[in-house]
Each structure stands twice: as structure tokens, then as C-alpha cells.
Amino acid sequence: LPLMLEAGGGSIVNVASEAGLRGSAAGLAYTTSKHAVVGLTKSTSFMYA
After folding, report:
1. In a domain, 21, yes or no
2. 1-49: per-residue pLDDT in tens?
3. Which of 6, 25, 31, 38 has its Cβ near the most Cβ atoms within 10 Å?
């Protein structure tokens, strides 16, 4: 992130599944990890917006 801030912008691409947005019966650990990716990305965007 420091280099992106210095450059004036950039993109971070994360890959999660539908389970990261809506939940899933695919398993607790899988769904939790996908929610974590989505949540980390959203929180980071607020911190650096």
C-alpha cells in the first residue's frame, strides 16, 4: 500500500466466492475464510479512502 499511495492509486484484486457475500452451507471454515477476505478488503478501503 505505501507504494500505491505514493503513486497516487492502484488496484487490489481479491478472489472470494459467493460464500463470502451471502454465506453458504459449504462448511464453516470455508465460509469464514471468504467472509474474512471480503471484510479485510472493505475495511482497508475505508482506512485508505
Report:
1. yes
2. 889 889 998 888 888 888 878 877 778 888 888 889 989 999 998 988 7
3. 31
Instruction: Report the distance separating Cα 7 and Cα 20, nearest Å.
Output: 30
- Domain membership of residue 36 (yes or no) is yes
Whether 19 is covered by a domain: the verdict is yes
Provide the residue range defining the domain that includes 38: 15-48
pTM of the model: 0.68
Note if 30 is an active site residue: yes
Active site residue 48: no
Q: Which of 30, 33, 37, 41 is catalytic?
A: 30
User: Could you say which DSSP state residue 41 is in?
Assistant: H
- How many domains is the chain partitioned into structurally? 1
